[in-house]
Each structure stands twice: as structure tokens, then as C-alpha cells.
Amino acid sequence: MVQLQENLALFEDLDADLYAISADTPSNSMALKEAGEFTYSFLSDESLSVLDYVHMKDEEHQMSYRGVSILDENGEYLFHHINDHWGEQIEETAQLIYDQLNE
User: Which of 3, 46, 65, 101 could form a cystine bridge with 82, CB 3.0-4.6 A?
Assistant: First the structure.
């Protein structure tokens, strides 16, 4: 998440909103957002329903995968990519997102 914050400029040409979604409680998500001084939105999905919808729910362990999901302007699922290292590979992650949105 820090890598995303530090590299938000990579996404400035996107007509999109960026969110971090986790299964953490709302209070834990807010504490992390405030502690890290993140400027993008954090969403709490304790029930894993949104994570399931965007294909980022690990059914076996009942937790979220790390990676990227893309929804269109109507909230319809378009794409997901599971990658524990998406932040470390932020430039490749950004390119993947741009490529998917330009298909």
C-alpha cells in the first residue's frame, strides 16, 4: 500500500478511483489509513462479499488475495490479477491496469 501511495502519479491519467479493500474491521482499516497518511480510500469487507465479487477471495483460507481488480463505471467486474508482489512491482502493475482498461 505504501508503494501505491508513493507512486500515485503512475495512475493520474486513469479516469478511475483507487481503493484498498481488506477483510479488516472498519476501525483497523481507518487506523492503518491514518497511520500511513494514505490519500486513497480504504474499504472494509469483513464478510468477504466484495472480495468474492472481484475474484479476490481465497475460499480455502477465508481471506483475501493480494492483487488488483478492475470494475467498470457501473461496478461490473472486468478483470483481476492475483499477485502478492503487486506493490513491489508497481510499474508493472500500473501497466497491467492500463492495458486492461484499453482493451
Answer: 65
Contacts of 88 (CB under 8 A, 6+ apart): 3
For every residue of 22-72, DSSP letters joined together read: ESS-HHHHHHHHHHHT--SEEEE-TT-HHHHHTT-EETTTTEEPPEEEEE-
> Model confidence over 13-46: pLDDT tens digits?
998 999 999 999 999 999 999 999 999 999 999 9
**Dist CA 44 CA 42 (whole Å):** 7
Residue type, 25: T
Pairing of strands 19-22, 41-44: parallel
Provide the pLDDT for residue 1. Answer: 78
pTM of the predicted structure, to 2 decimals: 0.87
